[in-house]
Amino acid sequence: MAEFGFNEHHQNEVINYMRFARSKMVLRLKTIDSCFEELKDSRLVEETFTVDEVKEMLDGLQAVVRGEVEMELINTAHTNVLLLRQLFSQAEKFYLRLQSDISELENRELLEQVAEFEKTDFKTAKINQETSKPKLLAPLNEGGVAELLNKEIARLQEENDKLKSRLRTLESQAMSALDERTKAERALKDLQKVQGEQQLAAQFQELSSLEDTVAALREDYERSLSAKSASQKDLQENLISAKHELLRVQEQLSLAEKELDKKFQQTAAYRNMKEILTKKNEQIKEIRKRLQRYEPNE
To answer: Which residues form a coiled coil (predicted)?
Structure first.
């Protein structure tokens, strides 16, 4: 196994996996053999068979064997995924990134070396029976990945210390700012208290002045209201007198119009005009009668 560059521990791990894979393979081959034996025991009981019967038996056997092989291939693929999961999980705990080359899985030379190992070394290799298997990948050497990890841990520790120091400084500044804020709030409250007392006194004084002003305005309003009431009463009396005078004048005008109309009707011109209008009306009536006689449809 030296061609693959494995150490003894990894070589034992490979042997364990190959033994596991071989046990699964042997179990699946036994299942396939049992399929053929079952066919022989259940169907091959006659001396002669038709072509259709042979074809039917082969098709059934093909379906069973195909299902067994497909199941084994799927199970093998899933098992390999679980194996890779273990390796990757262990590698990630040490911040390692494993990488695989899929093309190497079909390398005929490497496959032949694995087959040769299975024929020779696999049968004679001694597996180291350890009481407790390591659950994590161990560092390759102190000068490689472990050194990088130690440097990264040291850098992170240093950065963490800096952040802690910065945090303590910020906390100190925050406490100072909080004290200053408390003092400012206390001073503001005292100032507001003094200003409140002064403002209250000023408000009392302003309120007293406003009360005096309102009292003076109320007195002026009452005087103005009394004067307005007297003036309104005089205006109402004058209005009543004016209405009476207007009615008297309208009555005189009506009498004068009637008297004038009466005098006008007694004049000769009015009588002549009335006679002329009467004659004209008679003439119009006569003309209408003639028109109706000559033009009845009109």
So the answer is: 146-290
